[in-house]
Amino acid sequence: MTTKILSKTDTSKALSLPTKFFKDSLPSFNGGHAVTFQAMDESGFVWTFKCSTRKEGHPKPVLSKGWLAFARSKKLKVGDKIKFSVLDPTAAVPFYGVRAEKEVKIFGAIFGYSPIIIAPSNIP
């Protein structure tokens, strides 16, 4: 499982991902510059995401298609956390998991993170 704490750009434009995500928790580009994959959230809803990289220079993977709909449905904010994982690494076609967690603060201090679970019927 790979995690990232969200920035302003992540919550308003696209999710910038560290390249290590693709070694641990997301599909390989197999020499290309874009990959589309599906990931299931905590409620069982399956999201389709597209991740792409720059063709030249530092690859800088970015999750674009599907990301803003996911972020809005979960009401993600700066400081919240996103986690990606491989649900069944032995499957012929890997299936991924995505989990959003809200920052929990007590008296202004970060106490931890709580999962965001929204049923598919509440997703626009």
UniProtKB/TrEMBL annotation:
Residues passing through the membrane, by range: none
A Pfam short name: B3
Residues in TF-B3 domain copies: 1-101
Subcellular location(s) per record: Nucleus
InterPro entries linked to this entry: B3_DNA-bd, DNA-bd_pseudobarrel_sf
Keywords annotated in UniProt: DNA-binding, Nucleus, Transcription, Transcription regulation
Organism lineage string: Eukaryota, Viridiplantae, Streptophyta, Embryophyta, Tracheophyta
Gene3D superfamilies: DNA-binding pseudobarrel domain
Domain of life: Eukaryota
Protein name: TF-B3 domain-containing protein
